[in-house]
Amino acid sequence: MKTGLRRILLVITGGILLLLVLEAGVYNWRLLLSMRYRDLAEMSRQLSWRRDELLVERADLLNPERLQRVGTELGLAPVPLRCFSVLELRPDTSGGDQFVCMEQ
């Protein structure tokens, strides 16, 4: 009877140790997942801030008043119409399908 009782106690002790090891593994796995979630949440927050900064910068860069102000600071001005010339496409007289640009 002693050997049967001893085997039962060994099986119970082994089961308890197995449950403790499994509990420690599950705890560590949950801890790892929570740390990964925290890192991903922080990265998401940083990317959202960077996206907002870039949207503000984009809006500032596309602002027509800002573009005009920067252009005048750089000494740029609209090109006067007298600097433009109109070109007309005329067929090449040598007989091909090519065209020549002729100034009007």
Q: What would you note in describing this structure?
A:
This protein has helices at about 1-60, 65-75; strands spanning about 85-90, 100-104. By secondary structure, the chain is mostly helical. The chain has one domain (about 1-80). A two-stranded antiparallel sheet has the order 1-2.
Walk me through the topology.
Layout: H1 2-61, H2 64-73, E1 87-91, E2 99-103
Antiparallel strand pairs: 1-2
Strand order of the largest sheet: 1-2
Largest sheet: 2 strands, antiparallel
Strand content: 5-15%
The structural domain count equals: 1
Structural class: mainly alpha
User: Radius of gyration, rounded?
Assistant: 39 Å
> How far apart, in Å, are the first and last alpha carbons?
120 Å
Helix content: 55-70%
Overall mean pLDDT score? Answer: 84
Given the C-alpha coordinates, what overall shape results? Answer: elongated
Overall number of strands? 2
Uncertain segments are none
Number of helices: 2
